[in-house]
Protein backbone atom coordinates (compact mmCIF):
# COMPACT_ATOMS: atom_id res chain seq x y z
CA UNK A 1 0.00 0.00 0.00
CA UNK A 2 1.42 3.39 -0.98
CA UNK A 3 2.16 6.01 1.67
CA UNK A 4 -0.16 9.01 1.81
CA UNK A 5 0.59 12.42 3.26
CA UNK A 6 -2.26 11.96 5.72
CA UNK A 7 -0.50 8.87 7.08
CA UNK A 8 2.75 10.78 7.58
CA UNK A 9 1.00 13.73 9.24
CA UNK A 10 -0.73 11.58 11.84
CA UNK A 11 0.71 12.41 15.28
CA UNK A 12 3.07 15.08 13.94
CA UNK A 13 3.77 18.00 16.30
CA UNK A 14 5.95 20.11 14.02
CA UNK A 15 6.33 20.64 10.28
CA UNK A 16 9.58 22.16 9.05
CA UNK A 17 9.84 23.54 5.53
CA UNK A 18 12.74 24.48 3.34
CA UNK A 19 12.11 27.88 1.74
CA UNK A 20 13.28 28.00 -1.89
CA UNK A 21 11.50 25.49 -4.10
CA UNK A 22 9.53 24.09 -1.16
CA UNK A 23 7.37 26.94 0.12
CA UNK A 24 8.06 29.41 -2.66
CA UNK A 25 8.46 28.87 -6.39
CA UNK A 26 11.84 30.55 -6.78
CA UNK A 27 13.63 28.26 -9.23
CA UNK A 28 13.31 30.60 -12.22
CA UNK A 29 14.05 33.62 -10.04
CA UNK A 30 17.31 32.08 -8.83
CA UNK A 31 18.22 31.53 -12.49
CA UNK A 32 17.71 35.27 -13.07
CA UNK A 33 19.64 36.18 -9.92
CA UNK A 34 22.57 33.99 -10.94
CA UNK A 35 22.60 35.34 -14.50
CA UNK A 36 22.47 38.94 -13.28
CA UNK A 37 25.47 38.26 -11.05
CA UNK A 38 27.55 36.76 -13.87
CA UNK A 39 26.51 39.57 -16.23
CA UNK A 40 27.77 42.05 -13.63
CA UNK A 41 31.03 40.12 -13.32
CA UNK A 42 31.37 39.85 -17.11
CA UNK A 43 31.78 36.08 -16.84
CA UNK A 44 30.10 32.97 -18.24
CA UNK A 45 28.30 30.90 -15.63
CA UNK A 46 29.88 27.42 -15.28
CA UNK A 47 27.62 24.57 -16.38
CA UNK A 48 27.94 22.90 -12.96
CA UNK A 49 27.46 26.13 -10.98
CA UNK A 50 24.03 25.31 -9.53
CA UNK A 51 25.22 21.90 -8.37
CA UNK A 52 28.40 23.34 -6.86
CA UNK A 53 26.63 26.02 -4.79
CA UNK A 54 23.71 23.88 -3.58
CA UNK A 55 23.26 24.40 0.16
CA UNK A 56 26.08 26.94 0.41
CA UNK A 57 25.81 30.22 2.31
CA UNK A 58 26.07 33.46 0.28
CA UNK A 59 29.61 34.07 1.59
CA UNK A 60 30.60 30.55 0.56
CA UNK A 61 29.15 31.12 -2.91
CA UNK A 62 31.13 34.35 -3.28
CA UNK A 63 34.29 32.59 -2.14
CA UNK A 64 33.66 29.76 -4.63
CA UNK A 65 33.29 32.23 -7.52
CA UNK A 66 36.51 34.05 -6.61
CA UNK A 67 38.43 30.79 -6.33
CA UNK A 68 36.93 29.18 -9.45
CA UNK A 69 37.71 32.16 -11.69
CA UNK A 70 40.88 33.18 -9.84
CA UNK A 71 39.53 36.71 -9.45
CA UNK A 72 41.93 39.28 -8.05
CA UNK A 73 40.09 42.53 -8.83
CA UNK A 74 36.71 41.70 -7.24
CA UNK A 75 36.16 41.39 -3.49
CA UNK A 76 33.92 38.92 -1.72
CA UNK A 77 32.02 41.86 -0.24
CA UNK A 78 31.25 43.36 -3.65
CA UNK A 79 29.93 40.01 -4.91
CA UNK A 80 27.77 39.67 -1.80
CA UNK A 81 26.40 43.19 -2.29
CA UNK A 82 25.50 42.41 -5.90
CA UNK A 83 23.83 39.15 -4.88
CA UNK A 84 21.82 40.91 -2.19
CA UNK A 85 20.61 43.65 -4.56
CA UNK A 86 19.47 41.03 -7.05
CA UNK A 87 17.81 38.92 -4.35
CA UNK A 88 15.87 41.86 -2.94
CA UNK A 89 14.65 42.94 -6.37
CA UNK A 90 13.58 39.57 -7.70
CA UNK A 91 12.22 38.11 -4.46
CA UNK A 92 10.13 41.22 -3.83
CA UNK A 93 8.61 41.30 -7.29
CA UNK A 94 8.56 37.85 -8.85
CA UNK A 95 8.48 35.04 -6.26
CA UNK A 96 5.17 33.35 -5.46
CA UNK A 97 4.13 30.55 -3.11
CA UNK A 98 4.14 26.94 -4.32
CA UNK A 99 0.62 25.85 -5.27
CA UNK A 100 -1.44 25.15 -2.16
CA UNK A 101 1.34 26.13 0.26
CA UNK A 102 -0.54 28.92 2.03
CA UNK A 103 -3.67 26.81 2.46
CA UNK A 104 -1.57 23.92 3.75
CA UNK A 105 0.18 26.14 6.31
CA UNK A 106 -3.19 27.38 7.51
CA UNK A 107 -4.44 23.80 7.74
CA UNK A 108 -1.45 22.76 9.87
CA UNK A 109 -1.72 25.81 12.12
CA UNK A 110 -5.43 25.14 12.69
CA UNK A 111 -4.53 21.60 13.77
CA UNK A 112 -2.05 22.92 16.34
CA UNK A 113 1.05 21.81 14.43
CA UNK A 114 4.07 24.05 15.01
CA UNK A 115 5.55 25.39 11.78
CA UNK A 116 9.17 26.22 11.03
CA UNK A 117 11.37 27.24 8.11
CA UNK A 118 14.91 25.89 7.81
CA UNK A 119 16.83 27.28 4.86
CA UNK A 120 20.27 27.89 3.41
CA UNK A 121 19.03 31.35 2.50
CA UNK A 122 19.33 34.40 4.78
CA UNK A 123 16.95 36.00 7.26
CA UNK A 124 16.93 39.17 5.16
CA UNK A 125 15.73 37.36 2.03
CA UNK A 126 13.10 35.33 3.88
CA UNK A 127 11.73 38.30 5.80
CA UNK A 128 11.79 40.51 2.69
CA UNK A 129 9.52 38.01 0.96
CA UNK A 130 7.18 37.69 3.95
CA UNK A 131 6.94 41.47 4.32
CA UNK A 132 4.47 41.20 1.43
CA UNK A 133 2.62 38.36 3.18
CA UNK A 134 2.38 39.26 6.90
CA UNK A 135 -0.69 37.10 7.45
CA UNK A 136 1.28 34.04 6.32
CA UNK A 137 4.39 35.05 8.29
CA UNK A 138 2.21 35.02 11.41
CA UNK A 139 1.72 31.27 10.93
CA UNK A 140 5.48 30.59 11.12
CA UNK A 141 6.77 29.87 14.62
CA UNK A 142 10.49 29.69 13.83
CA UNK A 143 12.81 30.68 10.98
CA UNK A 144 16.32 29.23 11.02
CA UNK A 145 18.83 30.04 8.28
CA UNK A 146 22.39 29.01 7.51
CA UNK A 147 23.43 32.15 9.41
CA UNK A 148 22.27 30.51 12.66
CA UNK A 149 24.31 27.30 12.50
CA UNK A 150 27.90 26.20 12.03
CA UNK A 151 27.23 23.82 9.14
CA UNK A 152 24.75 24.44 6.34
CA UNK A 153 23.03 21.73 4.28
CA UNK A 154 23.79 18.87 3.58
CA UNK A 155 24.46 18.85 7.33
CA UNK A 156 21.18 18.55 9.27
CA UNK A 157 21.95 21.49 11.58
CA UNK A 158 19.34 23.97 10.30
CA UNK A 159 16.56 21.40 10.65
CA UNK A 160 17.66 20.27 14.10
CA UNK A 161 18.00 23.87 15.31
CA UNK A 162 14.51 24.66 14.03
CA UNK A 163 13.04 21.63 15.80
CA UNK A 164 14.87 22.64 18.97
CA UNK A 165 13.39 26.14 18.72
CA UNK A 166 9.95 24.61 18.31
CA UNK A 167 10.50 22.32 21.29
CA UNK A 168 9.75 19.19 19.28
CA UNK A 169 11.72 15.94 19.13
CA UNK A 170 12.67 14.86 15.58
CA UNK A 171 10.57 11.70 15.93
CA UNK A 172 7.51 13.96 16.16
CA UNK A 173 8.46 16.10 13.16
CA UNK A 174 8.05 16.09 9.41
CA UNK A 175 10.29 17.90 6.93
CA UNK A 176 9.35 19.18 3.47
CA UNK A 177 12.24 19.64 1.02
CA UNK A 178 12.83 19.86 -2.72
CA UNK A 179 16.59 19.58 -3.31
CA UNK A 180 18.94 16.61 -3.10
CA UNK A 181 21.20 18.50 -0.71
CA UNK A 182 18.26 19.39 1.53
CA UNK A 183 16.80 15.89 1.41
CA UNK A 184 20.17 14.45 2.37
CA UNK A 185 20.19 16.77 5.39
CA UNK A 186 16.59 15.94 6.29
CA UNK A 187 17.17 12.19 6.30
CA UNK A 188 19.82 12.62 9.00
CA UNK A 189 17.37 14.14 11.49
CA UNK A 190 15.09 11.20 12.27
CA UNK A 191 12.05 13.09 10.96
CA UNK A 192 9.62 11.93 8.33
CA UNK A 193 10.60 13.42 4.97
CA UNK A 194 8.42 14.59 2.07
CA UNK A 195 9.92 15.68 -1.24
CA UNK A 196 8.29 18.57 -3.10
CA UNK A 197 8.81 18.00 -6.83
CA UNK A 198 9.01 21.67 -7.77
CA UNK A 199 11.45 20.80 -10.56
CA UNK A 200 11.81 17.35 -12.11
CA UNK A 201 15.55 16.67 -11.88
CA UNK A 202 17.06 13.70 -10.01
CA UNK A 203 13.70 12.05 -9.32
CA UNK A 204 15.17 8.61 -8.59
CA UNK A 205 17.60 9.96 -6.00
CA UNK A 206 14.92 12.15 -4.42
CA UNK A 207 12.57 9.19 -4.12
CA UNK A 208 15.25 7.24 -2.28
CA UNK A 209 15.71 10.09 0.22
CA UNK A 210 12.03 10.66 1.04
CA UNK A 211 9.01 8.69 2.14
CA UNK A 212 6.64 10.55 -0.18
CA UNK A 213 6.93 12.76 -3.26
CA UNK A 214 4.27 15.34 -4.17
CA UNK A 215 4.06 17.99 -6.88
CA UNK A 216 2.02 20.44 -4.82
CA UNK A 217 0.29 20.71 -1.46
CA UNK A 218 -3.05 20.81 -3.26
CA UNK A 219 -2.68 17.08 -3.84
CA UNK A 220 -3.40 16.62 -0.14
CA UNK A 221 -5.75 19.52 0.46
CA UNK A 222 -8.22 18.51 -2.22
CA UNK A 223 -8.14 14.72 -1.97
CA UNK A 224 -10.83 12.81 -0.03
CA UNK A 225 -9.80 12.30 3.60
CA UNK A 226 -11.16 10.31 6.48
CA UNK A 227 -12.68 12.13 9.45
CA UNK A 228 -9.49 11.44 11.44
CA UNK A 229 -7.39 13.13 8.75
CA UNK A 230 -9.67 16.10 8.11
Which topology of the largest domain does CATH recognise?
Rossmann fold
How much β-strand is present in the residues? Answer: 5-15%
Count the E strands: 8
* Helix and strand pattern: HEEHHHHEHEHHEHEHEHEH
Number of helices: 12
Q: Categorize the overall geometry.
A: globular
Question: What is the CATH architecture assignment of the largest domain?
Answer: 3-Layer(aba) Sandwich
Strand order of the largest sheet: 5-4-1-6-7-8
The computed structural class is: alpha/beta
- Alpha carbon gap, first and last residue: 20 Å
Protein name: Hydrolase haloacid dehalogenase family
GO molecular function, one term: phosphatase activity
Pfam families: HAD_2
Organism: Giardia duodenalis assemblage B
Commentary on this structure:
The chain has a six-stranded parallel β-sheet. Strands 2-3 form a two-stranded antiparallel ribbon. The model is unreliable at 224-228 (pLDDT under 50). The chain has 230 residues and is of the alpha/beta class. It starts with a helix and ends in a 9-residue tail after the last helix. The longest helix has 18 residues, at 76-93. The chain has helices at 5-9, 27-41, 49-53, 58-69, 76-93, 101-110, 123-130, 134-137, 157-166, 180-187, 203-208, 218-221, and strands spanning 14-17, 24-25, 96-97, 114-119, 142-145, 173-177, 192-196, 212-214. It is built from twelve helices and eight strands. The chain folds into two domains: 5-25 and 96-222, HAD superfamily/HAD-like (Rossmann fold); 28-94, DNA polymerase, domain 1. It comes from Giardia duodenalis assemblage B. Keywords: Hydrolase. Pfam families: HAD_2 (PF13419). GO terms for molecular function: phosphatase activity. InterPro entries: HAD-like_sf, HAD-SF_hydro_IA, HAD_2, HAD_sf, PGP-like_dom2.
Amino acid sequence: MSVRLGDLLRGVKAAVFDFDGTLVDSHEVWTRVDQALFDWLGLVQPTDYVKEIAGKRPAEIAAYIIEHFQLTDVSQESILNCMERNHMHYFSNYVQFIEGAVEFLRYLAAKGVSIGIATASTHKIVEQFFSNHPEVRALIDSVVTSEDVVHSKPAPDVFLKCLEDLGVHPSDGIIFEDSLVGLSAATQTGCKVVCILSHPDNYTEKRELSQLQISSYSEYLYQPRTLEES
